Amino acid sequence: MSLVYFALWVIFNGRITLEIIVAGALISLLLDVFVKKIFRLNLTAATLWKFMKLLPDAVFYVIVLLIEIVRANFAITRLVIAPDIQVEPCLVKFNTPLKTNAARAALANSITLTPGTITVSLEGNELLVHALNRDIADGLEGSIFERLLSRMERKANV
């Protein structure tokens, strides 16, 4: 995991100098020790392989999330600017088929990051979401986020 931290350090710095390499190596090793000690992680080759197997899907998920955020921004801007559209805020409760807590939390956070929606609560499989308009609320259940997270769960053999 130290190598991953180090690679991120170098990428985020944007250049390679002796100071950056030395500081990155030291910080990466300390961060690795800290994370393992605090979170009691025991990363094995199998765990790392599972992570690497899901990485392309996770990157695709982030890309889709960013696209949906931009689309939602335009939709919300239209709601705010157009004088003839009536905004009707609503609360929507729905169940998600996602099996893991991590996937459900990712779904709840993705909904909250998307403008016009806020996840009010997540209890078990049930989400309560406040939406700025009924049209926005109708697209929550069975959303692209849910489908992508479900596919990632299947790949992780959950």
Q: Could you list some keywords that capture this structure?
A:
single chain, 12% strand, alpha+beta, 158 residues, three-stranded antiparallel beta sheet, 6 helices
Helices and strands in order:
Blueprint (H helix, E strand, L loop, with lengths): L1 H12 L4 H22 L5 H37 L8 E6 L5 H13 L3 E7 L2 E6 L2 H5 L5 H12 L3
Antiparallel strand pairs: 1-3, 2-3
Descriptive report:
The chain has 158 residues and is α+β, with helices and mostly antiparallel strands. The protein has six helices and three strands. A three-stranded antiparallel sheet has the order 1-3-2. A hairpin with a 2-residue loop joins β2 (117-123) and β3. α4 runs antiparallel to α6 (144-155).
Radius of gyration: 20 Å
Instruction: Give the number of helices.
Output: 6
The largest sheet has its strands arranged as: 1-3-2
Number of strands: 3
Q: What is the straight-line distance between the termini?
A: 23 Å
Low-pLDDT stretches: none
Shape: globular
Compressed to H and E, one letter per element, the order equals HHHEHEEHH
Q: What is the share of helical residues?
A: 55-70%
Which structural class is indicated by helix and strand composition?
A: alpha+beta
Averaging pLDDT over every residue, what do you get?
A: 88
Give me a quick take on this structure.
With 158 residues, the chain is an alpha+beta fold. 64% of the residues lie in helices and 12% in strands. It is globular.
